[in-house]
Amino acid sequence: NPERVSMPDFDIDFCMEGRDDVINYVAQRYGRERVSQIITYGTMAAKAVVRDVGRVLAHPHGFVDKIAKLIPFELGITLDKALEKEEALRSRYEQEEDVRALIDMARQLEGLTRNSGKHAGGVVIAPTVLTDFTPLYCEQDSTDLISQFDKGDVEAVGLAGA
């Protein structure tokens, strides 16, 4: 498709039991040094970062839970948007120093990478060795390669994800 703006990809929707066999076949077929899975990064979202910061600051669970529950359950909600939308949260933020300190620290961490994983079906096949294109990572107790570039970055360096 000449109008496509991103690299083409194809989906490998195999069951969990057979997926490793398919990936191993592809690695044997094209060379293990040219095939890897793609990393995913989980970020610190509004409710989770409030809970994490509350735990680090040693606030009682009940206190942190009440604040976290004031954040609207909405995909992609940020703490700034929650403060705009939720009067009760904004009021507590403005009136209570503990709440303000908790939210302010959480805002500094919001959106940062919290964990990593493997893209469920994401596999990249490089025209030469993968290290020409992407840094690699190998999980502990495994020989499986994982690109440290996520799906968007893999596409940006010119590799097509499968």
TrEMBL record:
Class in the EC hierarchy, top level: transferase
EC number(s) given by UniProt: 2.7.7.7
Every Bacterial DNA polymerase III alpha subunit NTPase domain range: 1-159
Cellular compartment(s): Cytoplasm
Record's catalysed reaction(s): DNA(n) + a 2'-deoxyribonucleoside 5'-triphosphate = DNA(n+1) + diphosphate
Keywords assigned by UniProt, alphabetized: Cytoplasm, DNA replication, DNA-directed DNA polymerase, Nucleotidyltransferase, Transferase
InterPro entries reported for this sequence: DNA_pol3_alpha_NTPase_dom, DNA_pol3_alpha_thumb_dom, DnaE2/DnaE/PolC
Listed GO CC annotations: cytoplasm
Pfam families tied to this protein: DNA_pol3_alpha
Top-rank taxon, per record: Bacteria
One MF term in the entry's GO annotations: 3'-5' exonuclease activity
An individual GO BP term: DNA replication
Name this polypeptide is given: DNA polymerase III subunit alpha
Provenance organism: Candidatus Thiomargarita nelsonii
